[in-house]
Design brief:
This protein has about 150 residues and is of the alpha/beta class. The chain has four helices and six strands; from the N terminus they run H-E-H-E-H-E-E-E-H-E. The protein has a three-stranded parallel β-sheet.
Amino acid sequence: MKLNNLKPAEGSIHSTRRIGRGTGSGLGGTSTRGNKGAKSRSGYKRKIGFEGGQMPLQRRVPKAGFKNINHKEYFAVNLSVLQSLAEQKSLTKVGIPELVEAGLTNGKKLVKILGNGELKAKLDVEANAFSKSAEEAIKAVGGNTTII
């Protein structure tokens, strides 16, 4: 391999025209950028969403509602799911690691236990939050609830 054999990789060159290589090339001078204005100068960047001075879409569209920055998104797990999990794996303690192992959550989301379904097994349950009905149902069976 020698310097006169080198070629750019296939597909890396998109145009055969060499811009800005003198007036003899036919594409020198302003280098296809036009004469004046910000676009003709080096370092020009167009703002994202710029519409040529027209009011941009993100400012034209009316804003509605309220977005609470302190809102927490919980992954819901019902008591019926805990009961079936306890029966399948004969568990006495259910926490986030057991739910991750069962494929119910990925471990990054907050988990809330809800009171839908019936719980027969005595379980020690660890979660980020409990509904009142779920907490009452777990304690009625003789289990414990722990908020992580």
